[in-house]
Input
Amino acid sequence: MKDQNCIFCKIANGEIPSRTLYEDERYRVILDLGPATKGHALVLPKEHFANIYEIPAEWAAGAMEIGQKMAILMKERLHTDGANLVQNNGETAGQTVHHFHLHIIPRYKNDGQRILWKPGKATDEELDAIVSAMK
Ligand code: 5GP
Ligand code: ZN
Output
């Protein structure tokens, strides 16, 4: 299903033009308009799923498969030194466009980007409580 009010539905399905790096029946890979680094791309499913909680596992797996292909191709063609594959879900997690997308952020030595988190601390009890809760 498509969402009439969703910009990524329109881009994924070619109703709004985009710089496309790859396309097949189910996905389109586009260049991000606000790139974190040179070649920052987004894998968009052509169907509308808001986030990781709504997308069927098969579609999520397909997006990752394409993310891997793109990262490998970027290494060869753009001479990247690494890549961050990032996928935000929910406003709290930084999602701004509520159509599932996988970021492929190529990394270059000294690119000045920081796609990291601040390491925290947890007690044994806290870690054990999480393991119990997840069982
Ligand atoms: P989020 O924060 O939801 O994980 O990521 C949304 C991303 O989409 C951002 O990196 C932003 O730069 C990108 N973006 C937003 N609108 C457009 C658009 O119209 N075209 C393209 N190519 N990228 C967009
Ligand atoms: Zn959509």
In short: Helices lie at 7-12, 57-77, 124-134.
